[in-house]
């Protein structure tokens, strides 16, 4: 067999694989609606109930990514810094709540002592 025939066969195989593979994937892969229809009714109901929350979470995620991308630092560093700041705020809120609970307990004890 000549080299030209081999190159033609290789070009044909490349074309079939590079075009046919994605075309087959597109043809056989089910759409989101087809997958949703295959759910049992209870899963469909739960999916519809949680859809708004998942959409809101995704929107928040994209918004944060846009904010992180505006900084000069890499996104993962900006995300880590934001996460650390969020944890610090949560810890501070937790300390405030614990102090408030302690204050209420002391007030209840004072009322109980004065009431006796």
In short:
The protein is built from four helices and no strands.
Describe the structure.
- There is one protein chain.
- This protein is an all-alpha fold and 116 residues long.
- The chain is 90% helix and 0% strand.
- It has helices at residues 3-28, 32-38, 41-70, 75-115.
- Helix 3 crosses helix 4 (75-115).
- The radius of gyration is 30 Å and the shape is elongated.
- The mean pLDDT is 91.
Key features of this structure:
90% helix, mainly alpha, elongated, 0% strand, 116 residues
The succession of helices and strands, N to C, reads: HHHH
Kindly state the percentage of residues in helix: over 70%
The computed structural class is: mainly alpha
Strand content: under 5%
Mean pLDDT: 91
Quickly count the helices.
4
Biggest sheet architecture: none
Parts with pLDDT < 50 across at least 5 consecutive residues: none
Anisotropy-based shape: elongated
Our Rg estimate from Cα atoms comes to 30 Å
Helix and strand arrangement:
Elements: H1 3-28, H2 32-38, H3 41-70, H4 75-115
Helix pairs in contact: 3-4
